[in-house]
Backbone:
């Protein structure tokens, strides 16, 4: 995670000080929000780093409403195992918890899990924490965990993520057994699935003495303010449609109230989070006038938030990989030496910095650099390099034999089709950058921008030499889906990938995993069926100086919310 001020923020803050004297499936780009582990998130996106037209508190800005408010959709589902509403999903981390949660750099951290033990990476013994209570006052047991995981396994949202689980069974009040189809020592990375109460199971002990579940007295107060007018931050309160969870907040009539029965609850926490319905097109204005205080968004998505004010941006890593794929079955790109040469013309740095506005980690190798499993030294020679292209092109039969300025393949004219879905401008821009760099080296490339349906048909029929795509990988980075799974559009020889992927997932420790990751990454780079470009980073926006301790992740934008320090007076 990195915290960044918008462009010229330092100058604006300095001016404040001077004036006052005061001291974070392969999809075609542009699709709607996908279900879990299937592709890119295209919720409210983009970031504007221009300087504010007026400073916070000056003319053109509304005085802060002195309550902490976030966006939601009252018509959307609050069921974390099936709901896919973009804004409500962002709130699930407040209402529900998983056995684990991913950190901002995709490391699994225990939440509801006391321990997860295995001897072979196939059979796991899970122990649930004994000090966790649901919002209705009943205690969490292994039964609820088993119910949640099995419900998730059968759901459209989580079935792909949990497809390698063979069975989940209860073995005791706080213990369960998970059996996998294949060894995977990275199982914890997949277990950030929200845990909910089994609605049919009631034989649980009551809440501990002193719990005030359901008591919303004091709910009009937030840390740092007890007098603000809350009228601007509330909307009509619909009936809550979600199951019972264990999160640090629970729904209470149009707002989220701190759950005092939560094991980490403390009096200094943000006591109330108000819910306000704001259309995506109005989000920038609502954030600028401070009626919305916390915004999660995709800087590379369709909808740009043109926020002309100083604000704080905190980034977090995701498992969304953007990559260039080759047709390995037909055309010049069926030749591995041609693919190896062409991959040296994909300028990862330029695409990640210029097109994705530094909201993506460049990735020469396929496994995310956020995991820290391989070093920059291992990547040497595989990235963008015109010199290396020229060296490899000769061995691949790529040369301009007739002197017309166009490179031929084995003496015959060559034209390559690069297909991309046009529904997101940023990805079309990335494809255009690749086309330009290849044409500058004499490669005749035709960019074909398509609708989603036509793009999908082209991939399935193999009507391309290259395609630009994005995939949301599972957090264990099982790359099999790209090489012998349903997204193997290029026709890679899966038999060469399967043992390497299995070895990576079955690595029992960091040292072994690093070695297995390098072996897999090198094979992918040498076979060159895909060229990784980068892993997207998403972000959250807050007003300057209002919230400390924000550390979002792909699992939970509100990670460690009970540890936040909130000073709403800084908004005035």
Residues:
């Amino acid at each position: 995670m990195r915290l960044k001020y918008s462009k010229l923020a330092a100058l604006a803050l300095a001016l404040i000080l001077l004036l006052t004297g005061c001291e974070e499936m392969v999809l075609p780009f542009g699709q709607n929000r996908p279900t879990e582990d299937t592709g890119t998130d295209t919720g409210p996106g983009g970031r504007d780093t221009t300087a504010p037209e007026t400073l916070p508190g000056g003319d053109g800005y509304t005085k802060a409403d002195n309550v902490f408010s976030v966006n939601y959709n009252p018509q959307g589902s609050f069921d974390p195992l099936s709901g896919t509403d973009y804004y409500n999903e962002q709130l699930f981390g407040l209402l529900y918890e998983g056995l684990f949660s991913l950190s901002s750099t995709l490391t699994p951290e225990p939440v509801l899990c006391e321990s997860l033990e295995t001897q072979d990476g196939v059979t796991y013994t899970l122990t649930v924490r004994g000090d966790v209570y649901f919002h209705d006052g009943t205690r969490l047991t292994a039964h609820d965990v088993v119910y949640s995981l099995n419900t998730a396994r059968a759901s459209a949202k989580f079935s792909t993520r949990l497809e390698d689980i063979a069975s989940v069974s209860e073995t005791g009040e706080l213990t369960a057994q998970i059996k996998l189809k294949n060894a995977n020592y990275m199982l914890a990375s997949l277990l950030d699935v929200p845990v909910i109460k089994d609605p049919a199971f009631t034989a649980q002990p009551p809440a501990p003495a002193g719990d005030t579940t359901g008591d919303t007295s004091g709910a009009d107060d937030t840390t740092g303010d007890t007098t603000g007018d809350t009228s601007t931050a509330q909307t009509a309160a619909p009936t809550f449609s979600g199951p019972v969870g264990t999160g640090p907040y629970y729904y209470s009539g149009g707002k989220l109230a701190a759950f005092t029965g939560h094991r980490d609850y403390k009096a200094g926490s943000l006591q109330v989070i108000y819910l306000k319905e704001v259309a995506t097109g109005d989000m920038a204005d609502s954030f600028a006038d401070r009626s919305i205080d916390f915004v999660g968004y995709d800087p590379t998505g369709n909808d740009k938030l043109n926020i002309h004010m100083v604000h704080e941006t905190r980034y977090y890593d995701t498992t969304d990989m953007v990559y260039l794929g080759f047709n390995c079955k037909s055309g010049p790109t069926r030749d591995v030496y041609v693919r190896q040469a062409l991959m040296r013309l994909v300028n990862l740095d330029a695409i990640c910095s210029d097109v994705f506005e530094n909201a993506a980690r460049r990735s020469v190798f396929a496994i995310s650099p956020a995991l820290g499993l391989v070093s920059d030294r291992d990547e040497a020679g595989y990235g963008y390099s015109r010199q290396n292209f020229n060296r490899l092109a000769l061995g691949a039969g790529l040369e301009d034999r007739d002197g017309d300025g166009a490179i031929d393949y084995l003496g015959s004219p060559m034209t390559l089709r690069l297909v991309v879905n046009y529904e997101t401008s940023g990805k079309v821009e990335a494809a255009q950058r690749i086309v330009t760099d290849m044409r500058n080296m004499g490669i005749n490339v035709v960019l074909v921008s398509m609708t989603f349906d036509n793009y999908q048909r082209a991939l399935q029929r193999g009507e391309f030499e290259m395609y630009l795509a994005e995939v949301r990988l599972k957090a264990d980075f099982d790359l099999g889906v790209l090489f012998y799974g349903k997204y193997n559009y290029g026709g890679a020889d899966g038999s060469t990938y399967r043992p390497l992927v299995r070895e990576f997932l079955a690595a029992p420790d960091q040292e072994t995993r690093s070695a297995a990751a390098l072996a897999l990454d090198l094979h992918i780079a040498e076979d060159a069926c895909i060229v990784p470009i980068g892993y997207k980073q998403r972000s959250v926006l807050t007003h300057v100086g209002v919230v400390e301790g924000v550390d979002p992740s792909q699992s939970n934008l509100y990670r460690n919310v009970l540890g936040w320090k909130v000073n709403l007076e800084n908004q005035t």
Notes: The two ends are 28 Å apart (CA to CA).
